[in-house]
Amino acid sequence: MTNTKKAPIDPSENNKQTPTEEIENKEQETSSSNQEKEPSAAQTPPEPEEGPDAKYLRLMADFQNYKRRSEKERGEIHAFANEKIVTQLLEVMDNFERALQQEAGSDEQYRAGMSLIFEQLKSVLIKAGVEEINALNQEFDPNYHHAILMETDENIKSGHVSMVLQKGYTLKGKVIRPSIVKVAE
User: Fold this and answer.
1) What is the distance of C-alpha 53 from the center of its chain?
2) How many Å apart are CA 84 and CA 70, to the nearest integer?
């Protein structure tokens, strides 16, 4: 008889898995541990607590910025609220100016009355912040002038306005109507 030794029975041997089962189990363990480590988009890590003073200062700064921004917007709305009516009044002013340029007949009182109305209208527009764009003999600037003709004129430098066909105006620095001009070549 041969004496054969039997290996002691190891309890872990009963739970042995095939190599593919071991790989699958390791993948599951890795994916579950990654899920625990990586926070999802819905689960953001908690931010460090700010002290009450820091929160108060940040809120105060935000509120001051909001007040400054809203005051600036209100100021702009107020400054340009009358732009449409001022534009319409400019047309009336142009008509008065054209009427005054016509030859006056025997009725000088009519002309004097028209001059008074024109000056009154002009002063109202000036008080509202309307200024005439000075264009004659100035260098052509497309921001302030609209050229519709070019002419050769030896008395005026090239690229300068030789004649103003319709006056342009600004309202508190903003061009509301550019000057329509002739430009020297």
Assistant:
1) 34
2) 23
